[in-house]
Design a protein that fits this description.
The strands form 3 sheets. Strands 1-12-11-10-13-14 form a 6-stranded parallel β-sheet, with helices on both faces. The chain has 15 helices and 15 strands. By secondary structure, the chain is of the alpha/beta class. The mean pLDDT is 94. α14 packs antiparallel against α15. β6 (145-150), α6 and β7 form a beta-alpha-beta unit.
Length: 421
């Protein structure tokens, strides 16, 4: 492993700790192909990029209904489902109604988005958990039409566990198409796949670029969610082997992931390195993990609060606080996707089954984006109502402001109502 070691000093340049993001791929050609040729383009692109010749894009409802998994896996999926549901159900917003002054009633109401597209990555591993992380909050939000797109496996089918998870989330519209072409189809619409109002879900650089193109074309997206990231912030009480396992867990996602270790204990670094070598020796995804670890880093800091300053500057997707009394530092965190408190809380708990969502902003976007929630699948609108008393009370303020802005039509629309009462 050839990760970079740094020693903190005042004005340490935190930019070098962020993931090196290669230029996003140009996906406009894929969008144009889907726009011009519809389903035909999806068949061609799937064969070109996935090496799969599909006979149909949509998975039949009979196939979804028939999907089965081993009993132990089914039990795990249902356990995760229950925890994710319990946490997300409490996120449902309440309508707000306020009388701002006598006779003036203002309200804020939330409604589900009409049709959403969920993207679940495929590629090197079937992400069963992502179906739950996307499907459950969409279902709780009350979205009437939920569409799921995911890449087919080499036999042209969708992994049965993905279909099983989709079924228990109440999703019956599933398409065997992945990558940028799936995002293009959800954005533009084809003969088989109607366009959606919003697209949600993680993916690689191509999916990330496609989602940004979708946003440019007027379809909402949840967030820029690309290659995965974790930073472990540790003190001398941390367990080297546990930290090594956490870093490997993130690194095995793929070669463009980011892992970093910040510690107050310089002696912890070589101990973690040794543990990584031991654990990697029997990891079947060793090649992916090693490639990531070779462009990752460690940083020695004088204290945990300095480490937190670094974390806020980097704005990582995941942060593991492997230190004493981690809850004491929670109030100092500002820019991070999801936090895992204490030695007993691995990031994999949140990835699968603790209840929080694993669809999170990456690439430093935690500076302005938060995790996926039920609100990601809803939109709000305001309303107001004036009675005669409210018209009388509000008219002077409206007239003065409208006239000061030179918008006399605004003033007149209020004045006419005032005159009528």
């Amino acid at each position: 492993m050839k990760w970079q070691h740094y020693q903190w000093y005042p004005d340490f340049p935190t930019k070098q700790l962020r993931a090196t993001q290669p230029p996003l791929p140009d996906v406009e050609g894929i969008f144009r192909a889907v726009e011009e040729k519809g389903d035909e383009a999806l068949y061609e692109l799937t064969q070109r990029y996935d090496g799969v010749k599909l006979s149909a894009l949509r998975v039949s409802e009979a196939e979804i209904h028939a999907a089965q998994v081993p009993p132990a896996l089914a039990e795990a999926i249902h356990a995760a489902y229950e925890n994710i549901w319990n946490f997300h159900f409490r996120q449902l917003p309440q309508e707000i109604v306020v009388e701002t002054q006598r006779g003036v009633l203002c309200g804020l109401r939330y409604v589900p988005i009409a049709r959403v597209g969920l993207y679940v990555p495929g590629g090197t591993a079937p992400l069963i958990s992502s179906v739950l992380m996307l499907g459950i909050p969409a279902k709780i939000a009350g979205v009437p039409q939920i569409v799921l797109a995911t890449p087919p496996s080499s036999n042209g089918k969708i992994h049965e566990a993905l279909l099983y998870a989709a079924r228990i989330c109440g999703i019956s519209e599933v398409y065997a198409v992945g990558g940028a072409q799936a995002i293009a189809a959800l954005t533009i619409g084809t003969q088989s796949i109607p366009a959606v109002d919003k697209i949600a879900g993680p993916g690689n650089r191509f999916v990330q670029a496609a989602k940004l193109e979708a946003a440019r074309r007027g379809v909402a997206i949840d967030m820029p969610a690309g290659p995965s990231e974790v930073i472990v912030l540790a003190d001398s009480t941390a367990h080297p082997e546990w930290i090594a396992a956490d870093l490997i867990a993130q690194a095995e996602h793929g070669s463009d992931s980011l892992v970093g270790l910040i510690t107050t204990d310089a002696e912890l670094i070589p101990a973690v390195e040794m543990a990584i070598k031991d654990l990697l020796s029997h990891n079947p995804r060793r090649a992916y993990a090693e490639e990531t670890l070779n462009h990752s880093w460690s940083l020695t800091v004088p204290d945990i609060l300095t480490g937190i300053q670094i974390v806020n500057a980097v704005a990582p997707e995941h942060l593991i606080l492997a230190c004493e009394k981690p809850e004491c530092y929670l109030s100092h965190l500002r820019q991070v996707g999801s936090v895992f408190l204490g030695h007993l809380t691995p990031e994999s708990a949140g990835d699968y089954a603790s209840g929080t969502n694993h669809v999170l902003p990456t690439g430093g976007m935690a500076r302005s984006f938060g995790s996926l929630t039920v609100l990601s699948f809803m939109r709000s609108f305001t309303y107001q109502q004036l009675n005669p008393e409210g018209v009388k009370a509000l008219t002077p303020a409206v007239l003065h402001l409208a006239e000061a802005e030179g918008l006399l039509g605004h003033a007149e629309s209020m004045r006419l109502r005032y005159a009528a009462i």
